[in-house]
Amino acid sequence: MTKKVTKIGVLTSGGDSPGMNAAIRSVVRTAIYNGIEVFGIMHGYTGMVEDDIIKMDSRSVANIIQRGGTILKTSRCKEFMEPEGRKKAFLNLEKRGINGLVIIGGDGSFRGAQIFSSEFNIPCIGLPGTIDKDIAGTDFTIGFDTAVNTAVEAIDKIRDTAEAHDRLFLIEVMGRDAGYIAIHSGIASGAENVLIPERKTDVDEIVKSLKEKEKRKKLVNLIIVAEGDEFGGANDLSVYLKDKIPTLEVRVCILGHIQRGGSPTCTDRVIASRMGFHAVECLIEGKHNVFVGIVNNKMHYIPLNEAVKKKQKINQELINIVKILST
Ligand code: F6P
């Protein structure tokens, strides 16, 4: 029989994403509403291993829904990858009577949760918190909407100066293994091309297309490069293109971590609040070791072990749209 969940821990892990605070607030307040005690685990799994755990109440999550980052802080914890680290973490939960966990993070964080729950029989619920949107089984991840809007706002500004100087700009966006920010920001900003890790980059095709555009005096071009593109980042591409087309005026702009910060959009606040609420409901109802996703505006509960095996695939339709609309 499933044990009743009476005390839960909540943590944020991996790269932070805007909306994590809204998710924490939702978990804390839903739990308290249901008579469940809540503990905040600081610095992701590190706080569990090092016993950095604080009691939370309704007030501790006041005035955070609009803030980026995470009040619980985050990290990528190496010790938790080892059995001894996880044992220490378990003992720290056990001494407080914590018998349920909500983990807000990406696929690496879910992997940790899955191993931990199978070793110590602690129910774990994941909330997909990543700007990369690379978790299969959900239409949304907390933070993607804010990050992509930050990128688009920046790219629009770059377009102004690109237009003024007739230049080619290579704009690098985040996404070590995933091209979602690149493809969405590329479509939304009218980019000529988008380079993503999920697809082999044909650089000679890019050279051909730029030469042809140069001939017809189309000199303003924006190319969006995901940082994890297999050809390399925007700097590598710039070197290659300058060598092949010396007449080209090329500039590189790496957007970097500004995409991870900032006040979450309304979409991110709402999905984070919905997911946080349902995470606690899952623990109460005994739905364990799943992550909460949203598909077609309905809540979905996907086993953590499935989430860690699959990657969100890039929709081919989006790739075609970039190509056709940039002609
Ligand atoms: O959170 C995901 C992500 O933003 C990736 O897109 C990026 O490659 C990575 O995190 C950067 O991580 P860090 O901040 O640790 O350098």
CATH class of the largest domain: Alpha Beta
pLDDT under 50 segments (min length 5)? Answer: none
Secondary structure: number of strands: 11
Helix content: 40-55%
CATH 2nd-level architecture of the largest domain:
3-Layer(aba) Sandwich
Biggest β-sheet strands, sense, barrel: 7 strands, mixed
- DSSP helical segment count: 11
The arrangement of helices and strands along the chain is EHEHEHEHEHEHEHEHEHEEHH
Walk me through what this model shows.
The chain is of the alpha/beta class. The protein has two domains: 7-143 and 264-309, Rossmann fold; 144-260, Phosphofructokinase domain (Rossmann fold), CATH 3.40.50.460. The protein is built from eleven helices and eleven strands. It has a seven-stranded mixed β-sheet with strand order 3-2-1-4-5-10-11, sandwiched between helices. The protein has a four-stranded parallel β-sheet with strand order 7-8-6-9, with helices on both faces. α1 (20-33) links the parallel β1 (7-12) and β2 (37-41). α1 (20-33) runs parallel beside α9 (266-285), α5 packs across α6 and α6 runs parallel beside α11. The radius of gyration is 22 Å and the shape is elongated. The termini are far apart. The mean pLDDT is 95. The structure holds 6-O-phosphono-beta-D-fructofuranose. The site of 6-O-phosphono-beta-D-fructofuranose has 9 residues, from loops.
